[in-house]
From TrEMBL:
The UniProt record lists the keyword Hydrolase: yes
Naturally occurring in which organism (per UniProt): Sphingobium yanoikuyae ATCC 51230
GO molecular-function term, one example from the UniProt record: hydrolase activity
Alphabetized SUPFAM superfamilies for the sequence: alpha/beta-Hydrolases
Pfam families associated with the record: Abhydrolase_3 (PF07859)
Statement: the UniProt record of this protein carries the keyword S-adenosyl-L-methionine: no
Name listed for the protein in its UniProt record: Alpha/beta hydrolase fold-3 domain-containing protein
Domain Alpha/beta hydrolase fold-3: 87-294
Keywords per UniProt: Hydrolase
């Protein structure tokens, strides 16, 4: 066993062989998107199948197309009580993925927390550079607030979150929403958020992280696609890169999780540190021996069981207003 693989938790090693190499480029990106589009529906228990799912198209930013979203509502009627809501933003390095791939987890949030879930199928880079995806996500946040009465939602209990690039988009959305001041967000649920274009480009390399699944090379491509220019320079638009935002005050509380071998380890810890310095409540979890996307190793691994329990508990507290 090579030295790098020995750093991986034993329960997560075998799954490394399931990840195909991602030789991302503008010429190959369509082929890598194909598996997401053609992925067969996952089998699901009755409790998740009972969650109501609806495909909707809501108005985008001026001059932009409508935004495709998946809307999930719990099977049980809420009565007169208002429900909380969770705006989910999928991952995929800014260039891959779609809302459908998180169907099971979004059904689980709705079923377990009794909340409305809206998952955004934002436009992908490089075809749509910044601020296209952020604007799509903001349109979804605005729609949740504007339709709160019709959906039976408490607008003071709307949380946002996502994985990897989705987590990065969530933070960019929170900063944008704070600056505009129209639509409050109560919480951010961030799983290995992709926050800094300098990681893997101009920032010093970490000696351990980024060897598996999502590497510095892939990160440079993803960020370059979003920015429409080379990542890591002093010319990038700061609004596109959450880690470059000079003022994080006024952002919502956050739950941040990341693997100890994840390329995003340092940027995620630094982001948590900056929030904490402002008195913003942050729960930070670093999973030993875990690489980026280790959840695909299976929900039954002890690492995923522990993380999922913590994420569920954190989001429940936030949506209950505790």
């Amino acid at each position: 066993m090579d030295e790098a693989r020995q750093l991986v938790a034993p329960e997560l090693r075998a799954a490394l062989d399931l990840f195909p190499p991602l030789d991302l480029s503008d010429q190959t990106i369509a082929a890598f998107r194909q598996p997401f589009a053609n992925r067969p529906a996952d089998p699901m228990p009755d409790a998740l199948a009972a969650v109501q799912r609806e495909e909707i198209f809501l108005p985008g930013a001026p001059g932009s197309p409508d935004v495709r979203c998946l809307l999930y509502r719990p099977a049980e009627a809420a009565g007169d009580a208002l429900r909380p809501a969770y705006l989910h933003i999928h991952g995929g390095g800014f260039v891959l993925g779609m809302a459908d791939m998180s169907d099971l987890s979004n059904r689980a949030w709705a079923a377990q927390l009794g909340c409305v879930v809206l998952s955004v199928d934002y436009r992908l880079a490089p075809e749509t550079p910044f601020p296209g995806a952020r604007d799509d996500c903001y349109a979804a946040l605005a729609w949740l607030h504007d339709q709160a009465d019709a959906l039976g939602i408490d607008p003071t209990r709307i949380a946002i979150g996502g994985e990897s690039a989705g987590g990065g988009h969530a933070v960019a959305l929170a900063i944008h929403a704070r600056d505009l001041g129209a639509y409050p967000i109560c919480f951010m649920l961030l799983d290995a958020p992709m926050l800094d274009d300098r990681t893997g480009s101009s920032a010093p390399r970490h000696p351990v992280t980024g060897r598996f699944v999502w590497t510095p090379v892939q990160n440079r491509y993803g960020w370059g696609a979003l920015l429409g220019q080379e990542a890591g320079t002093d010319r990038v638009p700061m609004a596109a890169v959450p880690a470059r935002c000079p003022d994080l005050s006024g952002l919502p509380p956050a739950f941040i999780s990341v693997g100890a071998l994840d390329l995003f380890l340092e940027e995620d810890i630094d982001f948590a540190r900056r929030l904490l310095a402002l008195g913003i409540a942050v729960e930070l979890h670093v999973t030993p021996g875990a690489y980026h996307g280790f959840g695909l190793a299976g929900a039954d691994t002890p690492q995923m069981q522990a993380l999922q329990a913590m994420r569920l508990a954190a989001l429940r507290r936030a949506l209950q207003g505790n």
